[in-house]
């Protein structure tokens, strides 16, 4: 049986490129998103969606890889966000990551498995007009660092990836100087396959 990868946010942008590479390496890939093209359609920040996604993946074999690629933007000066936009940004970028990791980390720690949490350079530095998005990504980074600490001495491997801007549907129009998500996907998959323990990657255009 092929190893199984669970990929929230795997139907567009970076997630879709990662899914292509994993399939080429004989992974069975289960994508999760609101898009109808996903294997599991739903909000990745809801427990019911997480449960359905894990069950769908288990039907294909042993889950050995979780890549949290779900996310959503929301930008503007501090003081311009309402409750709905705050919840949307936090749920998409932080809550979904926590719920999927919580669902799979215990079994990965026991049986072996890799978790890749895709963050952003917004998780590493303060950026104007990104207060809520940065808060969500900093939260995801903190959660991931705790996972790394708890994974020591277990069979789980935790990898955080902080890419800079990419040319994806995340943005309404092309951005000058932004990176090709195919290149970022190749770096991530290469790190997963390496025998050495790469546990943190920051990717920026030179």
Kindly list the characteristics that best describe this protein.
206 residues; alpha/beta; Rossmann fold; 7-stranded parallel sheet; 5 helices; 42% helix
Brief summary of the model shown:
The chain has 206 residues and is α/β, with parallel strands linked by helices. It has five helices and seven strands; from the N terminus they run βαββαβαβαβαβ. It has one domain (4-203): Rossmann fold (3-Layer(aba) Sandwich).
Topology:
Blueprint: E1 4-8, H1 13-24, E2 28-33, E3 40-41, H2 47-58, E4 63-68, H3 83-111, E5 113-118, H4 131-151, E6 156-163, H5 181-193, E7 200-203
Parallel strand pairs: 1-2, 1-4, 2-3, 4-5, 5-6, 6-7
Helix pairs in contact: 1-5, 2-3, 3-4
Q: How do the strands of the widest beta sheet line up side by side?
A: 3-2-1-4-5-6-7
CATH class: Alpha Beta
The proportion of strand residues reads 15-25%
Query: What low-confidence regions span 5 or more consecutive residues with pLDDT below 50?
Result: none
Distance between the termini: 41 Å
Class from helix and strand fractions = alpha/beta
SSE pattern: EHEEHEHEHEHE
The CATH topology name reads Rossmann fold
Main beta-sheet annotation: 7 strands, parallel
């Amino acid at each position: 049986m092929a190893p199984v990868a669970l990929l929230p946010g795997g139907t567009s942008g970076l997630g879709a490129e990662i899914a292509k590479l994993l399939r080429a390496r004989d992974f069975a890939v289960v994508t999760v998103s609101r898009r109808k093209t996903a294997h599991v359609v739903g909000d990745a920040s809801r427990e019911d969606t997480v449960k359905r996604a894990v069950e769908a993946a288990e039907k294909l074999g042993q889950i050995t890889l979780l890549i949290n690629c779900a996310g959503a933007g929301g930008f503007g000066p501090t003081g311009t966000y309402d409750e709905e936009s705050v919840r949307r940004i936090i749920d998409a970028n932080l809550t979904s990551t926590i719920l999927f990791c919580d669902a799979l980390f215990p079994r990965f720690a026991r049986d072996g498995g890799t978790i890749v949490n895709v963050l952003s350079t917004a998780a590493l530095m303060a950026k104007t007009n990104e207060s809520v998005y940065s808060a969500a990504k900093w939260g995801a980074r903190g959660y991931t660092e705790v996972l790394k600490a708890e994974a020591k001495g277990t069979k789980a491997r935790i990898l955080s990836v902080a890419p800079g801007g990419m040319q994806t549907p995340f943005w309404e129009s092309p951005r000058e100087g932004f990176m090709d998500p195919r290149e970022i996907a190749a770096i991530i998959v290469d790190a997963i396959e390496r025998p050495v323990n790469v546990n943190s990657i920051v990717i920026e255009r030179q």
